[in-house]
């Protein structure tokens, strides 16, 4: 009986602890919605695909949106703390960042390009010029900057910022190219023939904060505005047209594939039912039509405070701007455009984007992608591995895992929380030894595998002594860190 009383008392205390207590509960919820992400050894502005909420992701040279509390708003406007190798322009200061748009993962981007002698730089997603201006400040040898953006407003904001960073630099040139990064090859072709080969290229994916914070663009579910969502204001397809003309099956497909919405059938049905009453023309109408989802509890919010309309807005924006197809086309073109020994850095904000970047980098580095994994087994595996090696044009910088923003940055700028940085270096040029390390490990592994297979074939087909065959296989085991029989074989 005593044990039961203790259990009941514990349950009562637990239930009491779960009850919200006005302001303190709100503060606790805000803290839990901002989980820190571990910093990367590699140690910048676009918004994540899934968020227009202030508690969600950040954008590369973008401004942080109005937060849920004054303290959160103040922290979001602060710049990321750079490493000692960062440029003076990115040095820590008690003053707020001098521009309204804060580059995401600025310190990590500058570190990725720090070993290079950067004479020309291409920013495929120029935005307000946050990353570009900091690159100019960090590399005195940088004389040519190319900036691509589909939004004409971005060029207006970026040009004075970049020129101010290059003030007094003799021979400095800035070329602003209007278009989408998918067209970077023909856009560079308009500069010269043959096209220039930049030493450093940056792609900061997603939508910018200046677009999110402009209600008339329709990107944010926190602001009343028309359902536009076009990054290029002249593009023919808008979110309003998608919502009111596409079939329920088509809406469900983009919610599932682009928004990764678990309740995609439910949400698609709600959207169709809402538009049958009246056309969905504004962001608030769309939020109301989505309603509260069942997953995530009472308010339809998951453990990280994800708004129930977040994935719907993400899916519509990706569909309207054809973002994934453009990225898939642009990545190999960006790698091809690099100068020998140059580096490509890509910041993604969503698993769909990061998967495309990861696979494109793997193919360029001569590594199998998941869809090719089955070809690494069977009788033709060595032919396939040789084919991969022959197609290798680059190496991965660092390991295969992406670089994540520091805890300090995510605390100051919640929009940076889901950012991931991957870096690739093209073969050729002096480099900094990256090629030998990464490519050498893979080639060494293939040689070990080939020797092991040849050892087995000798045992089975050529009738050599069993001891020789065992030694050949055991060498492979020892190379993988094996102990015991392999070690004894070498000593014997």
TrEMBL record:
Alphabetized InterPro entries for the sequence: RsmH, SAM-dep_MeTrfase_MraW_recog, SAM-dependent_MTases_sf
Annotated Low complexity bias: 64-78, 469-478
Annotated transmembrane regions: none
Region (Disordered): 1-24, 39-95, 425-492
Positions with biased composition (Basic and acidic residues): 451-461
Biased composition (Basic residues): 482-492
Pfam families in the cross-refs: Methyltransf_5 (PF01795)
GO BP annotations, alphabetical order: rRNA base methylation
Keywords noted in UniProt: Methyltransferase, S-adenosyl-L-methionine, Transferase
GO molecular function per UniProt: rRNA (cytosine-N4-)-methyltransferase activity
Superkingdom of origin: Eukaryota
Compositionally biased residues, Gly residues: 428-440
SUPFAM superfamilies, sorted: Putative methyltransferase TM0872, insert domain, S-adenosyl-L-methionine-dependent methyltransferases
HAMAP family, A to Z: 16SrRNA_methyltr_H
Family the entry assigns: Belongs to the methyltransferase superfamily. RsmH family.
UniProt name for this protein: Uncharacterized protein
Annotated organism of origin: Chlamydomonas reinhardtii (Chlamydomonas smithii)
